[in-house]
Amino acid sequence: VMIMKTTSIVGVWLLIVVGVLVETFFFYQDPGGYGTESVIGLIAALAAVMTMVFSMGLKDEDRAVRYMLLIPVALVAVLTVTMLFAYPVSF
Amino acid sequence: LSGWLRGWLTTTNHKDIGVLYFVGSLFFGLIGAILAIFMRVQLFSPNNYFLSGAAYDQAMTLHGLLMILWFLSPLGLAFANYFVPLQIGAKDMALPRLNALSYWMYVVGGFLAIFGFFLPGGDAATGWTMYVPVSGATYSPGPGPTLAFAGLIMLGVSITISSINILLTIAYTRAPGITWRRVPMLTWFIAFMLLQALFAFPSLLAALLLLESDRVLGTLFFASSSGGYVLWDDLFWFFGHPEVYVVLLPAFGMLGEILPVFSGRPLAERNLILVATGAVVVPLSYLVWEHHMFITGISLSEDEAFSISTLLISLPFDIIILSFLKTLTRASIRLTAPMLFAIGSIVLFIIGGIAGVFLSSFVLDVVFRGTYFVVAHFHYVMVGAAIFGLFAGLYYYLPKLTGRMYNEGLAKIHFVVSFVGFNILYFPMFFLYEMPRRIYTYQAYPDWGLLNSIATVGAFIFALAQILLILNLVNTIWRGRISVPNPWGATGLEWTPSIMGASQSYEPRHLGESHAENQSSRPLELSAAVGVAFLGVALLSYYVWGWILLGLGFVLLVYVGVGWAVDNARGRISIPDEPTEKWPFEHITKVRLGMWIFIATEVFIFGAILSTDIYIRLNSASWPLSLGIHDIPLALWSSIALVTSGMTAVLALESIKSGDRKWLVRWLVATFALGGAFVAAHAYEWYTLLLVRVPSFSWSSGLPGGTYFFTVGLHSGHVLAGMTLICYLLYRVKKGGYSKDDYSGIQNFVLFWLFVDLVWLFIFPMFYLS
Q1: What phi and psi values does residue B739 have, to the nearest 5 degrees?
Q2: Which of B25, B447, B449, B666 could form an S-S bond across to B74 if both were Cys, CB 3.0 to 4.6 Å?
Q3: Shortest CB distance from B302 goes to which of A26, A76, A82?
Q4: CA-closest candidate to residue B749, choices B763, B735, B729, B733
Q5: pLDDT at position B733, please?
Q6: Which residues contact B596 (CB under 8 A, 6 or more apart)?
Q7: How far does the CA of residue A47 sit from the closest CA of chain B (Å)?
């Protein structure tokens, strides 16, 4: 069991490290490109979800705890979208 | 110190803390009221110069801040501290020492805010909304405003800690049999209030950190057109509107307790009230904030969306009020003082609520927003409904709090004079809908002088009434007749005769409570240390001894931190776990649940700051590419070091889970070393960036530098905090702490550390790969 756990911990770490390396690689291919930044953002979000779910152990928590963590994420999303669309003319 | 004073300064008992909150909130409320009287005297007649413009602005600002944040919100917390554990059969708060820390942070923060009056240039003169650019260093120079905002940061931290603690208490420490269906109304409404405070105050904290950064470090978050007033408005009102319900809901919870007792009928539609509040008011309160910004020129589609959401949020309040009224119909009403105040609260809320519906229309709001109509509206809701409801609670619970009966006749006179005075004070303001608010004097326009004179007379009557309250309180404590344990015939658990109040003369304090000896001076010391450090921060731009105070505060912080850790290692403060109702959190420990809630608030703080960065960047005409500024390979390696430290932290946890203390230490040391490498890499990068490679790129050079240094600096501060925690964990391990069956400290540290890792996963691409 310990070996399996260690393998999964190292596996998640490896995926995140690869993600960071891939982000950097993409950046050097097309620095500042809109598409590149979107992909990098997507990889970062996936890495964050993996950290939360596997490393922080959210997958093993009660459903109530899992949903609780969605609240601030949803609120930040609402705040961000509202701020950005308050003045659509300026973009 | 005498034993009596030492007892109050070091207590961690929830009843004592509740009493302290009562004293603290009434003290700050008194100062806020005196400032209000100054304002009303100034506005008594046209062209009056009793106060200068600057003095009036400072009085108005501190009046608003003290009344809303240091009086009304903490008064709800006073009831929460004292009565929530009693109502749910808990021994104390879930985390008693953090509860004391919340209180002392609140008190020290309040004194910092007031102390600004005595500094050169005076206190903040920005209004309680602290709108930028007025609250920036250009238009509000001097240490006073910086200190007041620092006091607010302490208050924000205090209320966030309180929210976590009390929610944890309600969720986790209910006595067997106290299922959610049996939780009393006051406790339910306190929970609703705290669910709002939990994410509202982090928004205020994020905004204040950015504002203080602008003021002290010279960043430009709010001083530029790319950030500016709209950014502040969004962050502030995302907190500001839920704060209205933070103030109001404890009062409604109190009505839910009082109305059934004095009407002889069960509360009508109890479940409907709970659903309306929990499922509609709480979530919707976060979705209405931009109705405070209709006149800032936000897009029409957002005007419409927030107008609709604001109208919608009035519906659950209709349900609540109609249910309260239904409880009163065909009832055998006993018109005691608590009942009179409860009915007064309902009446005033209806008036204020109807006025609020006008303001939900963005067309009418353009007319009313900057006028005394709004002043009348929010005072009817926040002062009228909230204060009358909380005063109802104060009289209702006074026999429990003191063991003595108050003077009923004097209390009824207090109600009548308060109600009459309140309406004479605020009702004329509805007719002043053409008079701008936030002006310290005015011309002799028709009716303005007369209506203002009437309002000032009302203010004196209302203030006089509160002297009656103080007299009654003093008289009750010193000379009131001994009360029977349950004078109202209430059925709540808190009225059980065996559950005694904190100060009941016929019962030694905390007799029979297992944690009576749990006292700690650390919360007060820590709050004082933070206060000294913040005083230093406020002064350092003006006086060299500001640096000395900052250094002293830091030394004190280290001293208290070490003391706190030693106390923990010795198990000085502990409340034994007992069987409690925990659904839906049966499979998680109390402290771990608390940690998750804390992380949820941190998610919001970092989320709001990253949103700010995105907003500013998208709003800027140009933004430099990171390639020409940052050392990207160095940042990449430091990122991998931090990510790897997350893995070693998890391995440390797995080691102790299997009982391997040797590998626990090794992995913790590895985590510390990797965290240290990360911080060292950033220190090196900042050094070369500022002094060698790009000297023009600093935090005060523009928005790219400001957003980078602030965000990365805040994150590095979290890494350093995590490294400090590792030192503490290693100390505990050395003292024999942690085992296969006791590893919650390690588990919680790992949660925190991984969260800090997670935040970096966003910061790295945002600042280095774009």
Answers
A1: -155, -175
A2: B25
A3: A82
A4: B729
A5: 94
A6: A61, A65, A68, A69, B588, B751
A7: 7
Query: Cα separations (Å) of B628 from B365, B632, B693, B719, B770?
Result: 48, 10, 10, 26, 11
Tell me the three state secondary structure of residue B742: strand
pLDDT of residue B515: 52
pLDDT interval class at A91 (50, 70, 90): very low
B428: preceding bond cis by omega (within 30 degrees): no
Task: Band the pLDDT of A88: cuts 50, 70, 90.
Answer: low
Whether a cis peptide bond, with omega within 30° of 0, leads into B584 is yes
* Per-residue pLDDT at B446: 85
For B11, the 3-state DSSP assignment is strand
Q: Is the minimum CB–CB distance between B347 and chain A shorter than 8 Å?
A: no
Count the Cβ atoms, other than its own, within 10 Å of residue B516. Answer: 13
B622 lies within 8 A of chain A by CB: no
Residue B141 burial (CB count, 10 A): 15
Torsion-angle region of residue B334: left (phi > 0), alpha (psi -120 to 50) or beta?
Answer: beta
Within an 8 Å CB–CB cutoff, is residue B762 touching chain A? yes
Read off the tokens for A25: 């690689």
pLDDT of residue B576: 66
Q: What are the residue ranges in chain B where pLDDT is below 50?
A: 502-512, 514
Are B234 and A87 an interchain contact pair (Cβ–Cβ within 8 Å)? no
State the nearest Cα–Cα gap between B546 and chain A, in angstroms. 36
DSSP alpha helix (H) spans, B93-223: 96-115, 143-172, 185-212
Picking from B397, B724, B409, B391, the residue whose alpha carbon sits closest to that of residue B562 is B724
CB atoms within 10 A of CB B637: 14
Residue whose tokens read 């109040």? B501
Give the residue-averaged pLDDT of A67-88.
91
Bridge partners (DSSP) listed for residue B11? B519
Q: Which of A43, A51, A82 sits opposite B234 (nearest CB)?
A: A82
Per-residue DSSP letters for chain A? -HHHHHHHHHHHHHHHHHHHHHHHHHHHHSTT-HHHHHHHHHHHHHHHHHIIIIIS-GGGS-HHHHHHHHHHHHHHHHHHHHHHHHSGGG-
The span from the CA of B242 to the CA of B238, in Å, is 7
- Number of other CB atoms surrounding residue B148 within 10 Å: 29
ipTM of the complex: 0.96
CB < 8 Å from A in window 538-597 of B: 584-588, 593, 596-597
CA distance B138 to B160: 30
- Nearest alpha carbon to residue B98 among B151, B145, B159: B159
- How many Å apart are CA A41 and CA A47, to the nearest integer? 10
Is residue B397 within 8 A of residue B19, CB to CB? The reply is no
Give the residue on B whose Cα is nearest the Cα of A89.
B299
Give whole-number Cα distances, B694 to B561, B626, B628, B661, B691, in Å.
Answer: 37, 12, 9, 47, 7
DSSP-derived letter for residue B484 is: P
Interface A-B, measured as beta-carbon pairs within 8 A, has a size of 164
For tokens 């985390």, what's the residue? B95
Q: Quick one: angle between helices B661-688 and B632-657, nearest 10?
A: 160
CB contact under 8 A, A62 and B301: no
Instruction: Please count the residues of chain B.
Output: 770
B154 and B105 Cβ atoms separated by less than 8 Å: yes
Residue B483 and residue B403 in contact, taking contact as beta carbons nearer than 8 Å: yes
**How many Cβ atoms from other residues are within 10 Å of residue B167's Cβ?**
20
Contacts of B753 (CB under 8 A, 6+ apart): B645, B646, B649, B671, B675, B722, B725
